[in-house]
Write a structure and sequence with these properties.
mainly alpha; 28 residues; 1 helix
């Protein structure tokens, strides 16, 4: 159960980082 929660957290973090990286480019 803990491993699954950790994997979900990693997936959410990776998605947040991707959005943060793309946001400056899309705002131009």
């Amino acid at each position: 159960m803990f491993k699954q929660d950790l994997q979900n957290w990693v997936n959410d973090l990776g998605f947040a980082i991707r959005v943060a990286h793309y946001r400056p480019y899309t705002s131009k």
